[in-house]
Write a structure and sequence with these properties.
InterPro entries: IGPD_sf, ImidazoleglycerolP_deHydtase, ImidazoleglycerP_deHydtase_CS, Ribosomal_Su5_D2-typ_SF. The chain has 194 residues and is an alpha+beta fold. The chain has helices at residues 34-47, 64-82, 133-145, 159-177, and strands at 3-9, 13-20, 27-30, 50-57, 91-98, 101-108, 114-118, 125-126, 129-130, 148-155.
Length: 194
């Protein structure tokens, strides 16, 4: 099993993350932000990851520390679970429609973190979730996981649909990229390392 457990404790957040790359899409999520819980459940379900995320954050300030720090911890868990990345496909791309919205996520488990994020205009808040935090989560996740991550809303108008399509596509794309292929010996790189 490719799995990891990460504990991150700061003066702003107390986070526990468990991640299993070879799961069934099971999720146990409690971040204190209902919409964000829903997004992480979708990520797990559509990537077929088993994910536990528990966070006690300073939500009396706002959701920023909670969302960003979960991105850091989840990214670290993904990187740890994948180990030396031997045999993985490495790349994944997913297009996900959500009513009027179409999202694309393309990623490379390269060891070189980078985020390109183009989601257009969003409503400031979706429930108790600050929509600007989607980019913050993705950046933190990319940096800690070592993933090159490109996220684009091709078109759409409803902010809930946009963010939901992004998290579903992220799960799908990462689920593709972490798959093992028996034809791949070592890592999928001419350099011999990722």
């Amino acid at each position: 099993m490719r799995e990891a457990k990460i504990v991150r404790q700061t003066t702003e957040t107390d986070i526990q993350v468990k991640f299993n790359a070879d799961g069934e899409g099971l999720a146990d999520i409690d971040t204190g932000i209902g919409f964000f819980d829903h997004m992480l459940i979708l990520f797990s379900k559509h990537g077929l990851f088993d994910t536990l995320v528990k966070c006690d954050g300073d939500l009396e300030v706002d959701g920023h520390h909670t969302v960003e720090d979960i991105g850091l911890a989840l990214g670290q868990a993904v990187k740890t679970a994948l180990g030396d990345k031997a045999g993985i496909v490495r790349y994944g791309t997913s297009f996900v429609p959500m009513d009027e919205t179409l999202a694309q996520v393309s990623l490379d488990i390269s060891g070189r973190p980078y985020l390109v994020y183009d989601a257009g205009e969003m409503a400031p808040m979706i429930g108790q979730y600050d929509s600007q935090l989607t980019e913050e989560f993705l950046r933190a996740f990319s940096m800690q996981s070592g993933i090159t991550l490109h996220v684009k809303i091709i078109y759409g108008s409803n902010s809930h649909h946009k963010v939901e399509a992004i998290f579903k596509a992220l799960g799908q794309a990462l689920g593709q990229a972490v798959q093992k292929n028996p034809r791949i010996h070592g890592v999928m790189s001419t350099k011999g390392t990722l």
